[in-house]
Design goal:
heterodimer; A: 670 residues; alpha+beta; 3 domains; five-stranded antiparallel beta sheet; 50% helix; elongated; B: 310 residues; 2 domains; 33% strand
């Protein structure tokens, strides 16, 4: 049989205008968080709903009838389905949620409606993290949460607290909640993978390198400013012309398109490890999500991170598609010990399917007689009027012929593909390497930022005694691309300069931006550094890091039960500490009460103790009856106490007078 | 019609300590917990660090708000005093002083009884006068009802309340004044009235049933406007009149009805400044006047119990 506890719950109250306006503000902020993702008509519609409610609250508009609300909902669902082809998934889900919040806010009549709206708003705010986990998103989302919570504070009070007071209180609570949040964040068991299947669009469609290269097809990456990865070097930072980040090796070609050769997997991938030459370079890569499996490593890696596998061609591949940003450390050597090429690999890298046109064949035959055909071809690119452009003419029929004799314009893919094909026709094994070249050094955070626009393609040729050797034909045409980086090259191209034909001084003058632009650039660096720190220390916290943290806390083989118990104990201990800081000052009672207690204590010593529920006047009557001799001294004390306590006055002089009289009061026992 | 004399000063004092306070989530608090669970599932499923952080922040804010809810009520001192007497049918107001001895403001503190709720906002280091209002349907002593102090501040997700307080305070409830009936007997006044329509003296001495010959300015218009029967105000010299308010003159009816008539007469006599005495079975109060006398009479009427057979 349970003891039935009588509860006294403060009555629910319908939300007033202040509470509703606070919610409208937070709803607007939450919608603003998503506005770039919502279709324009939906943003407009949601704004309309918020405005409608505003007019209802402040200008006496009427509640829309139920029929209108339901029709709006139905129309919105149909429109969302039309726009996305589904009602599930991230984008459609957020759109639906936004509509629901808007309609619910329009509907609010009772406290229950209000709380439903608040909870939907919290969920909508959470939704922003599915699209971005940047520092900015986090800051904005927490701001929205604070506004929403402040609106709730005002809700529970009939005599509306001023808005600033609600906000101040919310921030104070949030501030005290931070340590508890951290304990939960660090200790809540993290698991690898997901609980159930995620919708197809659960992760962003990422841009990045594609698995094939078709020179002459449209170049998508050169204008993409998104960060591909960031690099922290443990020691010396290599020079710009050494920063070749390899991702893919393409050996298969039909003359136009280059692909990864299936046969290559026959080669033992592990054979290339542990054979670096020169000074090792150690670095950590902060890799952005790609949705693919390829990773990047500086030419040429000799170690394989735990999350990756080694593949032929000195490349690293993740064990599963990279859906979240992650970090890995690699060691590379600038050169590699030559090992004999396997016959299969040699044949693969000599395959040149298309026959050469007559004029190309004449060229090739000329080079064949040279002592160093590689140098001859590079010289040819450099001395003839080949040009670098990001908007080359499309090539259709015979790539090599058209490129060498007609267009003579292109970017890295064109030069690398043409060069590799020529090498193969000259009997030198060669292949295409795709990855990134260069990067921009961030002074604020001391790391290198490599963007999608830094994507690059180059070639490798097999030389006796030297093994696979990097040759970058683009450098022969536009050395600025390699020496100054893609950023500078684009700036030069934008100003109409022709790469490969400029004096260094001219380039410097061209690149030296205006003061404001430079400051902006600096600011951008600091912002990127802050984001990087955020990603590294906050967002990268996953199962592995948790494991390491738990081990450092003394759990050798942590069981979830132990960790769960630690979590609960930690939270409880923190709550106790916060409770102590919040409630501790309470025991110091106010001066009037303290003095009255002293007065009662003095009387108590004479055997005239005040009873627990005895009011001051009743007590006084008893004093007069039992000890008439004390009546004269007690009377002003009692009178002052009653005045101070029940008169709702707190005059300092009266308090002083009261305390003085209590101090002088003497109760001598009989 | 409220008597102004307090009956006594018995005051009950409570301090809301930890042992007195309970706390439970409200319905919205339970839904909030459900929301957190769903958010946590989303965070786990998408393996989303910020979603974890956001969910745990809201959860931690909920936990810390528990302390704020507790702080809003704990340590609050209450003094409850006796209500000033009222007439049956009116509401008794028990003064409740809430003393906030802490340096934090306490908004959204509720006084709750079965039939009454009131929200107060208490400034730091101050006493807030409030009251507990209850209907007083019957004459006699009305005990202060059991009540509690509760708060759902700041978010309305949790609420705390004190173990019901059972103050010893009470309210004296006078009988409801009956209808205005003519005086039981007033030989001193009636002969003056017969002398004509101009009445000696200016003092209002009472009311009697309207007769067509009465001057219109003496009609008790306020009562007439309320739809009551027409009455005529009578004026006279306040000195010298002595009236005996006698139980036997109230002609039948139930006990409360007859006490009500006596109550009305006592009030009218007091207003008229008459000296009046009260005779109840087993009780007699000598004629006198003044507020103390009125209270003494009304108190007797409130507490009178029929003795023996009548």
């Amino acid at each position: 049989m349970f003891f039935k506890l009588r509860t006294y719950r403060p009555p629910d109250r319908a939300p007033d205008r202040h509470a509703a306006n606070g919610l409208l503000l937070s709803a607007s902020a939450a919608f603003a968080l998503h506005i770039q993702r919502l279709p324009w008509w939906l943003s407009l519609g949601v704004c309309g709903l918020v405005a409608w409610r505003y007019l209802m609250e402040n200008f006496g508009w009427r509640h829309p009838p139920r029929l209108i609300r339901w029709s709006l909902l139905l129309a919105a669902v149909v429109a969302v389905f039309n726009a996305y082809g589904t009602l599930l998934g991230r984008e459609a889900g957020i759109s639906l949620l936004a509509i629901l919040v808007g309609l619910k806010i329009l509907e609010i009549r009772s406290l229950r409606d209000y709380f439903v709206s608040v909870f939907l708003l919290y969920f909508l705010t959470l939704g922003a993290f599915l699209f971005s986990q940047s520092l900015l998103t986090a800051g904005l989302a927490f701001a929205v949460a604070v506004i929403t919570t402040a609106a709730v504070v005002r809700l529970s009070l009939p005599n509306a607290l001023p808005a600033s007071e609600g906000l101040r209180l919310t921030v104070a609570i949030l501030w005290r909640a931070v340590p508890i949040m951290l304990v939960m964040y660090l200790l809540f068991p993290r698991i690898q993978g997901s609980l159930w299947g995620l919708p197809a669009d659960a992760f962003d469609a990422h841009t990045g390198l594609s698995d094939t290269v078709t020179p002459g097809s449209i170049n998508e990456l050169s204008s993409n400013d998104a960060v591909a990865f960031r690099v922290d070097f443990a020691g010396q930072v290599p020079a710009a012309h050494q920063l070749y980040w390899r991702s893919l090796v393409l050996s298969g070609t039909d003359g136009a398109t280059w692909t990864r050769a299936r046969e290559a997997s026959a080669v033992n991938a592990e054979s290339w490890l542990y054979s670096g030459v020169g000074e090792p370079i150690d670095y950590t890569i902060d890799f952005e999500a790609t949705g693919r499996r390829w990773l990047v490593a500086l030419d040429v890696p000799v170690s394989v991170p735990a999350e990756a596998t080694a593949r032929p061609g000195f490349i690293l591949e993740a064990q599963r598609p990279v859906q979240n940003r992650f970090q890995y450390g690699v060691r590379s050597y600038p050169a590699h010990r030559a090992e004999p090429i396997a016959p299969g690999e040699r044949a693969l890298n000599l395959r040149a399917p298309r026959p050469l046109s007559r004029r190309v064949r004449a060229l090739v035959d000329g080079w064949r007689r040279e002592a160093d055909p590689v140098r001859a071809v590079l010289r040819y690119f450099n001395e003839q009027d080949f040009g670098y452009t990001l908007t080359p003419p499309l090539l259709r029929e015979n790539f090599l012929d058209e490129f060498l004799f007609v267009s003579r314009r292109g970017y890295c893919e064109h030069y690398a593909a043409a060069f590799a094909l020529l090498m193969r026709h000259l009997g030198i094994p060669s292949r295409l390497v795709v990855g990134y070249q260069g990067g921009v050094w961030n002074n604020a955070g001391d790391y290198l930022v490599v963007r999608q626009a830094d994507a690059h393609a180059w070639t490798e040729v097999w030389r006796e005694n030297r093994g696979w050797t990097r040759v970058d034909p683009t450098a022969a045409v536009a050395p600025e691309r390699i020496e100054l980086g893609m950023n500078a090259l684009q700036a030069l191209l934008a100003q109409g300069a022709l790469p490969g034909e400029l004096e260094t001084a001219t380039i410097r003058a061209l690149l030296e931006g205006r003061w404001l632009a430079r400051q902006w650039h600096h600011l951008g660096m600091y912002w990127d550094a802050a984001n990087t720190a955020w990603n590294r220390w906050v967002m990268a916290y996953g199962p592995e890091r948790q494991q390491r943290l738990l081990q450092s806390l003394g759990f050798d083989t942590p069981s979830w039960a132990q960790v769960g118990a630690t979590l609960i104990i930690g939270v409880a201990a923190l709550l106790l500490v916060i409770a102590a800081t919040l409630l501790w000052t309470r025991n110091k009672s106010d001066p009037v009460t303290a003095a009255y207690r002293r007065f009662c204590a003095k009387l108590g010593k004479t055997g005239l103790a005040r009873r627990a529920h005895e009011g001051p006047l009743d007590f006084y009557h008893r004093i007069v009856t039992a000890r008439p001799d004390l009546a004269a001294d007690s009377k002003p004390i009692i009178a002052l106490y009653v005045t101070l306590r029940y008169g709702n006055v707190a005059r300092e002089d009266l308090i002083d007078q009261f305390r003085g009289r209590v101090r002088r009061f003497k109760a001598v026992g009989h | 019609m409220r008597a102004s004399e307090p009956v006594g000063d018995s005051a009950d004092e409570y301090v809301l300590g930890r042992q007195r306070l309970y706390m439970l989530p409200t319905r919205h608090g339970l839904y909030f917990a459900l929301l957190l669970l769903v958010m946590l599932l989303a965070a786990v499923n998408y393996n989303n660090g910020l979603a974890y952080g956001f969910t745990f922040t809201l959860a931690a804010v909920g936990l810390v708000s528990m302390l704020y809810t507790h702080r809003n009520v704990t340590g609050l001192r209450l003094t409850i005093k006796d209500a000033t007497p009222v007439f049956a049918g009116q509401s008794a107001r028990f003064p409740v002083y809430l003393h906030n001895t802490s340096k934090t403001r306490r908004p959204g503190v509720w006084l709750l009884s079965d039939s009454y709720s009131r929200c107060v906002d208490i400034a730091p280091h101050s006493s807030h006068p409030s009251s507990l209002t209850v209907a007083a349907p019957r004459r006699g002593y009305l005990p202060c009802p059991a009540f509690s102090v509760a708060s759902a501040f700041p978010f309305g997700l949790l609420y705390t309340w004190a173990k019901p307080l059972l103050p010893i305070n009470r309210c004296l409830v006078y009988p409801a004044p009956g209808p205005r009936l003519p005086w039981p007997q007033d030989p001193d006044l009636s002969h003056r009235h017969h002398r004509g329509q101009s009445v000696d003296g200016d003092d209002f001495v009472g009311l009697r049933a309207y007769q067509p010959a009465d001057p219109p300015r003496h009609v008790h218009w306020k009562a007439a406007a309320r739809g009551a029967e027409w009455l005529t105000k009578r004026f006279g010299d306040s000195t010298g009149g002595v009236v005996w308010l006698d139980w036997t003159a109230t002609h039948g009816g139930d006990v409360d009805g007859r006490l009500g008539v006596l109550c009305r007469w006592a009030l009218d006599a007091d207003r008229a400044g008459l000296r009046y005495g009260l005779r109840l079975p087993g009780l007699e109060i000598a004629p006198d006047s003044g507020p103390r006398h009125l209270h003494k009479c009304l108190r007797s009427l409130a507490l009178w119990r029929p003795v023996g057979v009548f």
